[in-house]
Amino acid sequence: MTEQEVYKKIRPLLEGYTEGLYWDFKKTLTEIPEIIKDILAFSNSDYDGDSYIIVGVSEASSKNESKKIALTSEDRRRL
Fold first, then answer.
1. 39 phi/psi in degrees, rounded to 5
2. Coil vs helix vs strand at 63
């Protein structure tokens, strides 16, 4: 999958302000146990398609709240 194809796939997910069945928002990559928990939840769900952990975004409490977060150089290195 190309970068453009991935962007087309996740852009609608970013336009919402909440996480869903097959996607999860992470501010950073520092909470490894939480990321592992999400991966296991994805693998145990009934959803048969691709699942996404979107880094650099936090779940907003409303549509007006900003949710994008700049990635640290450490997070960029981990990606």
1. -60, -45
2. coil
